[in-house]
Structure formats: structure tokens, C-alpha cells
Amino acid sequence: MKRLTLFVDGAARGNPGPAGIGVVVQEGDTLLKEIGDPLGIATNNVAEYTALIRALEAARDLGADAVSVFTDSELMERQLLGIYRVRTPHLLPLYERALELLRGFRETSVIHIPREKNRHADYLSNLGADRVEGRKTARKDPRRSPGPKVEEP
What we know:
Number of strands: 5
Strand order of the largest sheet: 3-2-1-4-5
Number of helices: 4
Helix content: 25-40%
Shape: globular
Distance between the termini: 21 Å
Largest sheet: 5 strands, mixed
Mean pLDDT: 92
Order of helices and strands: EEEHEHHEH
Strand content: 25-35%
Radius of gyration: 15 Å
């Protein structure tokens, strides 16, 4: 069975504001794909769900049978686990699309992690938001700076 690890993050400066998504797809310790794309003006929750959807689509396209999703959005994790309801109408289509994609895998898990364990996806989401604002980034790539390696908790 092909199991992929997905780290996802969305960033919005203001709520709504310039937004971006960050996705890291790994198989074991091997980086398979990274996405850091601009979204335009969006809320943070829209950015979080959009990052998740892009990650799940990438995993599907890479032939994954199982996915472990790591997010620093406790709200999104709890909504996907059925602990919280999705109350915002504009999030409902994104939530439903995410559930549809999750059902396409034989095994799934969605796990909340602290932001510091999600630094690579956070970096990529902020690059996307920077591009919406039309600015060059001064951010340091977490893979090149000292500190803990981004890995499964």
C-alpha cells in the first residue's frame, strides 16, 4: 500500500486578506511535491481547506492508497472528524470536496499538530500570500535554517 504524508497550511493576512496555500507531500522521508500558491483575497479557513484539497488531489494523482494529513488548523481537523459542524456557508462546498477526496483513499487520518511542526507548509503558504501582495519574500526556507526537521510527529 502506498502511504503518503501530507502537511497542509493556509495563510491569510487579514481575514479576509491576501492568502496563499502551502502543501508538502512526502513518502517516508522523501519529498515528492511541494506547493506554495497564491489564492488572492480569501479567509484563513478558505486557505486551509484549499490547501487540504490540493494536497489530497496531489496524493490521488501520485497513486496513494492511504494518506496521513497533518494540519495546524484545529478547527479544520475537528470539522473533518465530525467533532465540530461547518457553520459558515461559504466553507461548506470546500468541506464537502475535502470529504469526497478523503473517501477516495483506503485509509486516512487527519491530525492536528503545532505550527512549529508544520514549518515547511507554513513557509510555502506565506510565499503564496507574498505573491498576492506582489512582494518579494525575505522569509527563510525552514529546510535551510537551523531547527527541528519537518517530519511526522
